[in-house]
Each structure stands twice: as C-alpha cells, then as structure tokens.
Amino acid sequence: MNLIAKYNVQTPRYTSYPTVPYWDGMADVEQWKQKVYQSFVESNEKDGISIYIHLPYCESLCTYCACNTRITVNHAVEAPYIAALIKEWKLYLEVLQNKPRIKEIHLGGGTPTFFSAAHLKKLIETILALSEVCIDAEFSFEAHPDNTTKEHLQTLFNLGFKRVSFGIQDFDVKVQKAIHRFQSYEQVKNIIEQARAIGYNSINFDLIYGLPFQTLDSVIDTINQVNVLHPDRIAFYSYAHVPWIKPGQRSFTEKDLPVDTEKRMLYETGKEMFIKAGYVEVGMDHFSLPEEGLNKALNNGKLHRNFMGYTHNYTKLLIGLGVSSISDSWTAFSQNVKTVEEYLELVNNNVLPVFKNHFLTEEDLLLRQHILNIMCNYYTEWHEEQTATLADALLRLKDLEQDELVVINNRSIKVATKGKPFLRNICLCFDKRYWNKTAQTKVFSSSI
Fold this sequence. Notes:
The chain is of the alpha/beta class. The protein contains 15 helices and 20 strands. The two termini are 16 Å apart. It folds into 2 domains: 15-359, pyruvate-formate lyase- activating enzyme (Alpha-Beta Horseshoe); 362-436, Orthogonal Bundle (Arc Repressor Mutant, subunit A). A 9-stranded mixed β-sheet has the order 10-11-9-8-7-6-5-2-14, with helices on both faces. Strands 1-17-16-15 form a 4-stranded antiparallel β-sheet, covered by helices on one side. The chain has a 3-stranded antiparallel β-sheet with strand order 18-20-19.
C-alpha cells in the first residue's frame, strides 16, 4: 500500500501534549497563577522566561490562514490593544513577584507590522523596563513584506530584535490571488536587503506547500527565487485545510488543492532543492543554514519545540500575552479568550483573560517528553519502569516499524530517514488522550 495514502490521516502538529482539543479543564485562574509562580521560581534564574505576544490585526484576510485574526483597516484599534497588552503583562508581574529574566520574545499574529513602529516601541520598552534581559536573549517578529517599513525594522532592531520572519507562502501570481496574499519578489528582495543592512542576523521565510493551484513547476519557480534571496531559515509548512474552523478557506474547494502523492511531491522537491542550496533539514518542516542557531541546536541535542514552533532557546515558562495566546508553565497550559472584545474587557478589569487550562498529570508529562524528543531529536528512550505506560504506544508503532519508518530497540525508538515525512504519525502513537477520546468531528488537518 502507498505509505502516503496509508498515513495521510488527521494528525496534530504537536506543538504541545496534550494537544489543545484534549485539554480537560475550563479556566482555573488561581491554580494557573500558582503553576506560573512555581515554574518561575524554579527556572527564572537559570533559563529565564519566554514571552509570546499575539497581535491579531490584519488589513485584509489571507484565505489560507488558520490563525486567530481580526480584519480591519481602522488603525485606531492599535492604542487600546497595546495598552491592554501592557496591563496583562503587569498582571503577570504581580504573579511572578520578582523581576523576570527574558530569554525570548516573539511577536506573532495576525500581522505584527499592522501596528505602527511607535506602538510596538511603547509595548516592548515597557516590558523591558520591568525586566532583565538574558545575555543570550533572542527577540523575533513576524512581518508581512507588503507593509513592513524600514522604520519597523530599525525600531525593533534598536530594541534588541535580531530575527525577523517574513510570510512569503508562494511567489506565483495565480496562487497569491487564490489565497489573497500579495507581495512581489522585488518587494521581498527590497525588505530583505534593508533588514540585512540594518543588522538582522537571522531572516526566516515561511512557505506553504499544498495551496490552491500550486503545481510542481510553480513551486520550483518559487523555491528558485527563495534560494536566490538565501534566507537563514525556511519553514516549509503543509497547508492545513480546515474550512470547518476557518470559513475563509471556503473561497476555494478541495478540487483546487494538490493532495496525497501530488502534494507530498511538492515537499520532497522543495526539500531536495533546499538541501542542494546548502540548507539542512531540522525537525519537521524546517530548514536552516549550517551555521544558523537552529541547526547548531539540533547537532547539540538542544533543539526545543513549543507553541511558537522550533527554537534553540529552552525555557520552562512561556507566557502568552494577547487574545487567544497560549502559555506554558511545563506542568500546565493556559489559553486566553479568543475575541478582542472579551480580552479587552477582562484585562481592563484587572483579570487575567484565561478561558481554558490544562494541568498535566504525571502520565501527560512522560508522554509529552517522548513526543518532544521525537519531534526535536528523531529519537527517544526510556527506563524499564516506564515500559508499562508506553505499552499501547509500542503496539501502535509496530505497524510503522514494519513499514521501516522507525527502528525499535529494547527501550528506545529512532526515526528512520524514511520515517521523517511521517513524524506526526509517529508521535500520534504516543498520544494517549487522542486514542482514549478520538474526536467525532474533524479537528486536525491531514498529516501529509
């Protein structure tokens, strides 16, 4: 049987375990505060903390997007939202009871560069004024090539941002029209040159395969252009078609999408072109130049994965600010409310805007670590006393072992080279909550 057809099933992307649909608690803000404080006390001095800030506004809807966004051309929304982010941060400072050491800040969206450079400056300056910054801290932001200005780049660079990620997705005009995201090669080239001239030392491109009307030839053309621009990192994501969650994706149909073997060929061709251009495959969907931090972390066994994706900065505590942001204290997860109106109301009433929690059991923590090991290192091992807990996972892995996707030894599992395209399927074998409560409706995108 064709492996792609066999394993192309709905599968989480495993930026967490348990995954969000299987969290089992509604909001318990007081218990969440206790978990945050405990994690902070245990890890702040050694590792520092990470901060993710969700900036949801966009001027137009990209129809492929599955993120939490708010579409508007009214920039009067900026000031109250920035004020609320600052207020939420101060609420967390009350929980921490001491000055945090910041290891990582990431601005995501939405479109962070929807906000003016002045508003972003006010936000970051306030956070930094109430914190210390680790010597090896890394600040990054997501940017749309169509609205990112030199002022954005210079302002954020002056505040310590050295990494920027541009959402390219595809250079083909027909594809751009279908997904309603427009930027020319020349626009991207210009903004990249400005970023490098200012001093940014890590530039990432987000690309997507499996978009409507993509063909092998169009993807080859896009990647040829990307390789000329030579970003330091590339995230080459599988398009997640989830129209039951994001109705904007109904502007095209499944008939317009490359699927199964055709879709996988787009990835394999891209992967081959990236490697030929000098990139190294890192984890799942990511490529890095050999000297870039992501590849160094892979080689040193220090690659980490959290709700922001792959990173070479491990912190035990990740605080998410803004509408729909997710936080992680390692032993607990928390997600903020999903509408801007509710977020503003709660924060302005001095309430942490949490609507959902999950407090991890000992079993959750064990399975989480194995899934993280596989996602980051293609390998995991365990002690004899863990074998009983992993018994069901090992049974599920037998089929993948027969297909030569994994190598199972006495108390370890290694992902075979042939198995790397099926990393999500391998992790799925460990996902006890998924198997105990398989969803009756569509929840996840397909793995291929």
